[in-house]
Design a protein that fits this description.
The chain has 317 residues and is mostly helical. It has a single domain, classed as Rhodopsin 7-helix transmembrane proteins (Rhopdopsin 7-helix transmembrane proteins), CATH 1.20.1070.10. It is built from 13 helices and no strands. The protein is globular, with a radius of gyration of 22 Å. It starts with a helix and ends with a helix.
Length: 317
């Protein structure tokens, strides 16, 4: 097993050395995403806990808090990912911890993203279905259930004796545990995407049918719904599709085609982390109340510039 691992690390290092400039770029992108994402998400969490007291707030705030928390926990593992893009690691324990954080927290981020969309769908399209809304308003219980379920689904995939820290390492055998991991991976991306698209289309239709209300607010709401779907599609769909192609090219021989897929996959992994940076902007800063509070706390120098605009906006409202 040690010889196998050493050989895999050597192969990985050769692959990285042959594409040094590309993987330094990948590593730099991950570091930038880590710094910006962590700063933004920590400041948002600070407002949720100390200013908004999310546990006393609306149902949506509890889901948003869990979404941001999942993104923070995912970001914590990015320095290890940046290191692996430049230097293959032989520390399998560190590798498994990083992969566990990646699988669990990316899954949690997508799950809470989906639940938020479902909640908004019923609130806008079917406000009369009180039983469903009553269930969705049990946000603490739903949040605990999501974390426990994803933890159960993630742990078995981390228990196998050999797991790749880098996509260029030796291919894994398609054991039941590996198949379980890949099934969970594709399920938690493609099913939520279709749910998001379905909810978004019906929400937009419902908003367009509203003849009463502020047209500007309606346009902003429709833009937000559309933006969420686009961000999800850009961050996760190419990454998942390339992962499927990589599994299809699974084999003992590292062909030129396979190396190209590996490089593309690693680049799209970097793109997928962008979701951690965009989630707080799309969901938290899209709220007028939260945005004003955030600016007053962390960007007070923008208040003077926004005062003339805000007075115009008030007049328009």
């Amino acid at each position: 097993m040690d010889n196998t691992n050493n050989g895999s690390v050597e192969n990985c290092q050769v692959h990285i050395d042959q594409n040094r400039a590309l993987y330094i770029f990948y590593s730099s992108v991950v570091v930038v995403e880590f710094i910006l994402g962590l700063l933004l998400n920590i400041t948002v969490i600070h407002l949720f806990v100390f200013k908004l007291k999310f546990w006393k707030s609306k149902t949506i705030d509890i889901f948003l808090f869990n979404l941001v928390l999942a993104d923070i926990l995912l970001l914590i593992g990015l320095p290890v990912k940046a290191y692996n893009f430049q230097q293959c690691s032989e520390q399998k324990v560190v590798c498994k911890v990083q992969l566990f954080l990646q699988f669990l927290n990316r899954g949690a981020s997508i799950a809470f993203l989906t639940v938020i969309s479902i909640y908004r769908y019923f609130s806008v399209v079917h406000p009369g279905k009180r039983k469903v809304l009553r269930i969705l308003k049990k946000s603490p219980q739903i949040s605990v259930f999501i974390w426990l379920l994803l933890g159960i689904l993630t742990i078995p995939a981390m228990l196998q004796s050999f797991i790749r820290c880098n996509s260029s390492e030796k291919d894994e055998e398609l054991t039941p545990i590996v198949l379980l991991r890949e099934t969970v991976f594709f399920t938690q991306i493609f099913i939520p995407f279709f749910v998001l698209v379905y909810c978004s289309i019906l929400i937009i239709r419902r908003l367009e049918q509203k003849s009463v209300g502020d047209k500007t607010k309606l346009r902003k709401a429709m833009f937000l719904v559309t933006a969420v779907v686009l961000v999800f599609a850009i961050c996760f769909l190419p990454y998942a599709i390339t992962r499927a192609v990589q599994l299809k090219t699974n084999g003992p021989v590292m062909t030129e085609e396979k190396l190209t897929v590996v490089k593309l996959y690693d680049g799209l992994v970097c793109l997928s982390y962008l979701n951690c940076l965009l989630d707080p902007i799309l969901y938290c800063l899209s709220s007028g109340k939260f945005k004003k509070l955030y600016i007053s706390m962390y960007l007070p120098f923008l208040l003077e510039k926004q005062q003339p605009e805000s007075s115009e906006d008030t007049a328009d409202d």
